[in-house]
Structure formats: C-alpha cells, structure tokens
Amino acid sequence: MRATFMYGAGDVRVETVPDPVLQQPTDAIVRVVRACVCGSDLHPYHSMPASQQGNPMGHELVGVVEETGSAVTNVRRGDFVVAPFAFSDNTCVFCREGFQTACPQGGWYGSPETGGLQAELARIPLADGSLVVVPDVDPATADDGLLASLLSLSDVYLTGHHAAFMGEVGPGTTVTVVGDGAVGLSAVLASRQLGAERIILMGRHTSRTDLGREWGATDVVAERGEDGVARVMDLTDGEGSHVVLEAVGLMPAYEQSYGIVRPGGIISRVGVPQYEKAPVGFGSLFGKNARLAGGPAPVRAYQEAAIGQVLAGEIEPGKVFDAVLPLDDTAEAYRLMDSREALKVALRP
Amino acid sequence: MRATFMYGAGDVRVETVPDPVLQQPTDAIVRVVRACVCGSDLHPYHSMPASQQGNPMGHELVGVVEETGSAVTNVRRGDFVVAPFAFSDNTCVFCREGFQTACPQGGWYGSPETGGLQAELARIPLADGSLVVVPDVDPATADDGLLASLLSLSDVYLTGHHAAFMGEVGPGTTVTVVGDGAVGLSAVLASRQLGAERIILMGRHTSRTDLGREWGATDVVAERGEDGVARVMDLTDGEGSHVVLEAVGLMPAYEQSYGIVRPGGIISRVGVPQYEKAPVGFGSLFGKNARLAGGPAPVRAYQEAAIGQVLAGEIEPGKVFDAVLPLDDTAEAYRLMDSREALKVALRP
Q1: Beta-sheet strands, E only, within chain B
Q2: How far apart are CA B293 and CA B168, in angstroms?
Q3: Which of A312, B63, B89, B166 fits a disulfide with B293 by CB distance 3.0 to 4.6 angstroms?
C-alpha cells in the first residue's frame, strides 16, 4: 500500500510499504476513505531531526472495515467507520469516566509499532473501542462535504468540542477562543452548540475568521499580546471572559489567556503545549481563582452524539477542510498548511 | 489600643497605637473578641526584611460592632460579627458570582492603609459587605469552643471548604489532602461535609493527622515526594485521586499533587503559592487532562451557611485552635506556630 512517512523537518514522503496485517485478535484493518493532516503534524514538520528511518504519519481517518480479528465484535467487514485519533479499549475505568486518551491499554498512532493513518490501509488496535460505525452512509456515494464532516469527528471538531466542554461553556457564557486555526474555529462552533452567549475569536486571517463568524463568533479581535488582552477586556466591560479556549499551544497564547480570563473563569487548552512550565501563581491564575483545564481530547467520548448531529445536518464541521488532495500529494498538503495557503487538507487515497 | 506589627523576619511586636477611626461612610469599627495567627502570616515571619516601620498584622476576627459609618445598613452597634479575611462590597458582579476576593472595591488587611486585625479594634472597610452577623450569640457568655469555631469561619475552615468546593468534591469522590496544617485539616472536614467517599490525608504530624482522622480522613500517608506519590497510587489501585487539595503552597506539594491526581481529576490549591511558574505541560497536567483550580478563598460566599452549621452543632471547625493567648503575647503565638508546637493560636485582646 501507499503510506506517508516523515524523514525530518519539511521532508514528507509517500512510499509503498507492505499492507498492515492483524497482529492481535482485537485489531481491525480499515481501508481509508479520507485521511488528513493535523495542525499538530506541523510541529515535527518544523522540528524533526533528519533520520534514515521515516516515521509513519497521520492519526485521523474515515474508512471501511476490511478485516477484523477474532475478538472484535462491535464492527464488521464493510462497516463505514470513524477512528478517533487515539485508540482505547473504551471499557476501562478512565474510558468510562470519559477520558479515553488516558486508557492504559490505549495509545497514539504514528509510531513504527502502530503505523500512521495517512495511508491506504490502517491497522486499528482495540477495534471494538477505537472505531465507531457511521450508520446508513455509503462512502462510495456520499458527497465530499459529508465525508469531510465525518472526518472532522476523528479529531479536529471534537478537539474543539472538548475544549468547550472542559471549559464548562453553557448558556450565558462569554467565551474567547485564542487561535483561528481549524481547532480554534471548531471550538467556536462547539461553543455555539453548547449555548455560549458571546464568542470572541482572536485571529487575524480574515478567510478563517469569516468562517468563525459564520459559526457563531460575535466578535473578532485581530490584535495579539497586550493589545489583544486590552481589546478583549474592553469588549467585556473590563470583566474578562468566563471561558478562554486556547487552541494554539504556544506561550504567548497562554499568557494572553490568563490576561483575559475573568475571576473564577476557566482557561481550557487543547493546543498541544510546546512548553512544560508556565505561570500559575498569584500573578497569573491563583490570584483571581482562574482555573486551567484541557488536554488531549477523548474524542471517543463525544463521537456518537456528534455523528448524530452531522447526519441530521445540524452541524457541518467539515467546512474547516478547504482542500482535498490525492494521498500521493501528502507532502504538498503539509506545505499548503504550513504556509497557511490551506486551513486543513483532506487526503483521498 | 494595642495592635500587632511585624518589623522583620521573626520580629513581632504588640504596640500601643491610636484607635482606628471611621474614614469612609461605609466603614465600621469592630472591637475584637478573638483574632488569630494564620499559616500565611508565617511567610513574612520567615522572610520579611528588617524595617524601621512595622507592618500591621492579622486578617481574621470575630468581634462586636462599636460604630458604623452613615452609609452602613447591614450591621449596627452591638452586633456580634465575623469578618471574612478579605473585604469586599458583596454587590459587584464578581461578588455575585461568588468570587469576593476579586472585588474591585475590595482588598486585604495588613497594610498601613487598612490596618491589621491582630488588635483590640479594627476598621472594617465596606462593612455592609465585609461583616456577617452571628445571630443569637452573646460573646460575653459564649464558650471558647464556639468562639473558636466562629473565628475559623473568618478564614481557615472556609479556605479548606473553598479548596474542596473548587475541587468539585462530592459523593463518590476520592480526595487527597496534601498538608496537615490547619487549612489541610479544614479541607478534610469540608470534604467530608461535601460527601467525599474516601479522604487520604498526607501529613506526618500524628497529633494533627489524629484530628484529620476524627474529621473523616480514611487514610493517612506520612511519606512525601516520590514515596508519597507511590503510596497514594497504591491506595487508589493505581488510578490516582479524583481530587487533590493542595494546602501547602510550596513546589514539592504541587509536584506531589500532579503525581497523584487521576486522569481528568482536579488539583485545587489554597496554600498561597510561593512560586509563580510550575509544570503544566504534557508531562504534568495536560497529558492526563488534569485540571488546576483554587485561589484566595472568597469566604464571604460561604459564610451564612457555615455559621448555620456551627450554631446547629453540625461542625466544630474551631478544633484547629489548640491554644489561646492574650493579645500581648502575639509574638509567642507566632513562635509556637512556627516551631509547630501549636497548630493554630487564637488571640484574646
């Protein structure tokens, strides 16, 4: 099959490799209908040291089950499925509590052992917990918009939803979203779904913030840093934002977040933090009882409800995809996203 | 009147100074019945640079209203009152949201402008918001235990309650309390009141952990650091604690906290952090979706309910006081607490 590997910063290659095979009775093999590139894939695209061995890439897909191990009972050959970006057994105590990304049996795609999902075929470990069937959709005839929206449930939309959910967004809430990437825009849509009264989107790329407005952003703030903080404080009568959804992962976004969060409010982070230490003391979080939440989104917890919303036409989270390329052009997909020529690129094997 | 001043580390003096007077029509003057020394007073007791000018000390009292400004309507001369450790108008939007320590009109005792409460008399700014009447108690005849319990509502017990409240402690919760000081023990009692199923107290002073057990601690862990983390993980079947209440304020306690918090759990801090930066990235909080909460306790928000519980005999939070000294012996009270010969010392003017 064809599959994507990264050999170093900026060096993405699609290569022919052996098809994946069942390794455990709990595995399934899925034929990819759509995969995509994630904003988090751009971190190694910037920083990975050059290597003789390529690292398999990709952790998002919708596809059709080809083969299942003997212990798999929840999915069968021919099922059209979404794969959450992390695999998990979905039965352990942490999974039952809604934190599937902490499943001790689970793990991440994109290592030599697990393989990547930017490929023609994928081995899905713990398939009973890690694949969710999309009922009544034939991927051969479904339109690109529907496929894109279902693909967004593999990670990006439900990562935005997780930010909003952990931020306790609800009716009456003022939400500020830091970052106008695909996750930030998804967080806008999710906040609107959860009933937020006011949604301030901090971003400076008009083509993106326009989608944010379409999805429910009531205000757009292009300023950053201290100017951005001042602008949000001004918009909130000096009170600050009940909830700040941080969808960037860099320190300036974190600093902006504690600058604008209201006393007692919540900063919910889903941008993968590119830092370990950050201010949390009297001058940042503690003094105003601001709370910090967020982490790798347990998208599995939210999947059935979101599939229902997509199939009912209530939401179209796939609008974050503004390009679809053949799998063989994955390197170009990375380039387009890195240069911000594309917001998010889907891949068609 | 006699009042307490700190002139530098270890240098506490009780001096005769002019009586406080009404400065604003919203002020009240209160005659102190009991004041006390706080664990947080020990931070300057360790580190304050020597100074020619003493800093007024103390932020906890119960007392009797002597005089009120012309704009004060909620309390009157003769009322027996508790003063929350921060003053606030209790009418602004943040106060109404339950975060009175963020009141823009409010502030802290213990500066030359506001004065301290380890004194015979105290000026209380914003008296309508900053004093709470205790009904049907005559301080002249009330026993020491009742006075101590009411005094504990000025700060220590309700700071412990705030930790548990922000930690979302409830039925079924496993709580670990880091620190066996007066706030930590109060957090044990508050967690039990909120219905915690299991309460692990991390502390090594048997006389203190014994009170913790009396108040509901189901397990006591004397080990610290990695050994302490391992012990708590062992007690929780390797899962960790839903809630960790950090009542110390030093980095080792913070590190212990993220070591034992369960995926998706909450670390709630009420020990005043003696650090600004701390780990919050993938290796500490983010990776397991652990949340961070807490800050200066808005004890005003919890006062009426707690006064009711104390008067009904449901709780006796004043048991953290193991000594009462005359106000003139305040320096000795600091020494006893600093040397851990006393847990918490009340002062009787």
Answers
A1: 2-8, 11-16, 28-36, 55-56, 61-68, 80-83, 86-87, 107-108, 121-124, 132-133, 174-178, 198-202, 219-221, 241-246, 261-269, 277-279, 291-294, 323-326, 345-348
A2: 10
A3: B166
Mapped onto helix, strand or coil, the DSSP state of residue A245 is strand
Output the CA–CA distances (angstroms, integers) from residue A257 to A241, A293, B38, B284, in the order listed: 9, 12, 32, 19
Quick check: A98 contacting B, CB < 8 Å? yes
> According to the model, what pLDDT value does residue A271 have?
81
Please indicate whether, in this complex, the C-beta atoms of B277 and A273 are within 8 angstroms of each other: no
Shortest Cα–Cα distance, A295 to chain B (Å): 4
Q: Which residues of B touch A295 (CB under 8 A)?
A: 285-290
Q: Is A96 on the interface with B (CB under 8 A)?
A: no
Which of B166, B286, B288 to probe the A interface (max A CBs under 10 A)?
A: B286
> What one-letter code names the amino acid at A41?
D
Q: Residue A272: what pLDDT? A: 87
**pLDDT digit string (tens) for A40-68?**
999 999 999 999 999 999 999 999 999 99
Q: Do A288 and B295 touch (CB under 8 A)?
A: yes
Residue with tokens 């080792």: B252
Token pair for A213: 């407005």
- Mind listing the pLDDT tens digit for each residue in A318-348? 999 999 999 999 999 999 999 999 999 999 9
Mean pLDDT, rounded, for B146-154: 98
Give the position of tokens 């990006």: A156
CATH class belonging to A157-294? alpha beta
Instruction: Give the residues of chain A that fall short of pLDDT 50.
Output: none
Residue of A nearest to B294 (CA): A289
Model confidence pLDDT, tens digit, residues B8-65 = 999 999 999 999 999 999 999 999 999 999 999 999 999 999 999 999 999 999 999 9
Domain residue spans of chain B: 2-155+298-348, 157-294
For all residues of chain A together, what is the average pLDDT? 97
* Contact residues, chain B, for A251 at CB < 8 Å: none
Distance CA B146, CA A327 (A): 75
Residues B269-301: pLDDT tens digits?
A: 998 899 999 999 999 999 999 999 999 999 999
Which of these CATH numbers, 3.90.180.10, 3.30.2000.10, 1.10.10.10, 3.10.180.10, describes A2-155+298-348? 3.90.180.10
A172 in contact with chain B, both atoms CB, cutoff 8 A: no
Whether the Cβ atoms of residue A149 and residue A320 lie closer than 8 Å to each other: no
Interface test with A, best of B285, B288, B299, B302 (most A CBs within 10 A): B285
Query: CB contact, 8 Å: A250 with chain B?
Result: no
Find where tokens 């049907």 sit: B136
